[in-house]
Amino acid sequence: MIKINLLPHREEKRHQRQKSFYSLLVLGFIAGLCVVVVGGGVIEGMISSQENVNTVLKQENLRLDEQIKEVAALNQEIQSLKARQQAVEDLQADRNQPVYLMEELVLQTPEGVYLKSLKQEGQRVVLNGYAQSNDRVSEYLRNLSNNSPWLERPDLIEIRAVTLGQGRDMKKVFDFTINVGIKRPRDKEKEAASAPAGAGKSVVLGAGTSANAPAPAGLKPVASVESGKKR
């Protein structure tokens, strides 16, 4: 006997598949919504945590900037104090500079050279005087450059022929101006410290000095000393 199912089973299966599809769709939407909510909460927490870290970093940067400013101010004060200390030490050490300068001028000035005046500005000394010849000026420059432990780097600024006196006393001499540097005691100490052990410097004095040599006729040396030290 043949059995025939006359019920609309295809329609029922289609309705069941639709219900299953809608159910899965709703479940997927709910699961996606839960994922979005949870993920959003996690991301929001991470953002909040990073903002807190950024705030802490900004505050630390501001604090470090203040400390850097304080350190810079302290460095400026230290440099200022060092400069003042160096100025005081230079003043203390430079008290004997005029003595060294006058002694060296006496020792290094050869015969036939007579100083009219000298002027000191800082560590440079301008010498003005008369010489009997160009050779005397050259010898003077060599003495100042090579033989003096206190004077250095002499420069000939000007030299010109002039006539002094009248009649029989009239003499032709050379008026010169020399710029020479004078060392500080601490500079000499640095040179001595950097010099090799046992090294010495032989000092060769000039042929004579203007202090002991008589001035030629019509030539009157003038002892004019002007000090213009700048601190």
Observed structural traits:
231 residues; alpha+beta; Gyrase A, domain 2; 4 helices; 5 strands; rod-shaped
Quick summary:
The protein is α+β, with helices and mostly antiparallel strands. The chain has 4 helices and 5 strands.
Strand order of the largest sheet: 3-4-2-1-5
CATH topology of the domain at 97-188 and 213-227: Gyrase A, domain 2
Q: Report the mean per-residue pLDDT as an integer.
A: 79
Work out the helicity level. Answer: 40-55%
Number of DSSP strands?
5
Shape from CA axes? rod-shaped
pLDDT below 50 for ≥5 consecutive residues: which ranges? Answer: 198-231
Order of helices and strands: HHEEHEEHE
* Annotated CATH homologous superfamily of the domain at 97-188 and 213-227: General secretion pathway protein M, EpsM
Terminal-residue CA separation = 135 Å
CATH architecture annotation name of the domain at 97-188 and 213-227:
2-Layer Sandwich
Specify the structural class.
alpha+beta
What's the main sheet like? 5 strands, mixed
CATH class of the domain at 97-188 and 213-227: Alpha Beta
Using only C-alpha atoms, the radius of gyration works out to 48 Å
